[in-house]
Amino acid sequence: MKKTEQKYQTYVQILKEELIPAMGCTEPISLAYGASLARKVLNHLPAKIVVEASGSIIKNVKSVIVPHTHHLKGIKAAVCAGIIGGNADKYLEVLSQIDEKTKEEIDQYIEKVDFEEHFLESSKVFDYIITVWNKKEYVKVRVSDSHMNVVCIEKNGEILQKEKSIIKEEKADRSLLDIEDIYDFIATVDLIDIQEILERQLDYNYAIACEGLNDNYGANIGKVLLKSFGKDVKNKAKAYAAAGSDARMNGCELPVVINSGSGNQGMTCSLPIFIYAQELKVSKEKMFRALALSNLVAIHEKSGIGTLSAYCGAVSAATGAGAGIAYLYDEDYQTVIHTIVNTLANVSGIVCDGAKASCAAKIASSVDAAILGYHMYKNGQEFKSGDGLVMEDVEATIQSVGRLGREGMKETNKEIIKMMIHE
């Protein structure tokens, strides 16, 4: 693929848009970002806050710890942290500058502020409105479709269309992604165009994985894997990816580099590639090409599923990792696509019931399935067209899984949300 081609430039831009830092689970962090923006425009400490959120936002915020909040969970914690200590200019690292004194201020503010949260009836799975008041003045911020896509800021009845804080996310066209061209791109890309963002992804995500293994977070899935099953490359790949999630879901105050709007997916895409690259002693160049392959495959799959779904994003991310691992072994295009199909045929039934400690276990299971999918094909085995969701080729299979996650699991998502909020 030539640098001058539209797809080349689009693929580079997609990686730049997707592989960005975030501190904490991205749904509560998005709420903190929106709240910080609202306070900035109001220019006063709000006495009253009303949050209206779509079901998938509620689901993904309910059970995960918000960083820099003394291990608090939920919408109120995320929003109040954004109000008191957030810096909207830091985007998804909005809470990164909170110190111990500010944590105490957040605790005090949570106790005294007039706070309401409501279910938002919306056609969008990712949608929330934060309205803040100080006496008779108010500001309303609405974020839809993705974590920083601010669609409206309203102050005292006036729509602030020219407000500098509004970020309209103009994204590169994800419909240009397909597996054959992704494979061509990673084989020909000039690494100078993408290496910096890939290095940052590995640096950040490996650091939080090590933190997850060195301390006590959640269910400690990473530690359990290493203690129970040893340190062979397959188990380490699963353990490090899981350990990053252990830490991130349970209050660790280190950033990660995300994929498809998710830190868990960013770690699942990257950490198995790093572990296998170390084991196989491949060149840095080969590692970065494998990492680009992993990320782009995951983004391609998740684009069809949507931002939030009842379909677990660890599956699409691990499928990318499986493709990248095959590339590290010097396998050809056919092996890569069969690894993808074999993985999707195995674990596409894992549901997303929000962000919390068990995400680490789902990551481990998904990475295991991806590695199995690779070894299946190397041993002459594959899932074939007509086997459930497996279609005539890799693109059709990805489309079928996308349809499952986007359309087929809508009612599943609704039922999960009802059960989580005890309706």
UniProtKB/TrEMBL annotation:
Coiled coil: none annotated. It holds the Pfam family SDH_alpha. InterPro entries: Ser_deHydtase-like_asu (IPR005130), UPF0597 (IPR021144). Residues 146-417 form the Serine dehydratase-like alpha subunit domain. GO terms for molecular function: L-cysteine desulfhydrase activity. GO terms for biological process: L-cysteine catabolic process to pyruvate. It comes from the Bacteria. Belongs to the UPF0597 family. PANTHER family: UPF0597 PROTEIN YHAM. This is UPF0597 protein C7U55_01570. It comes from Faecalibacillus faecis.
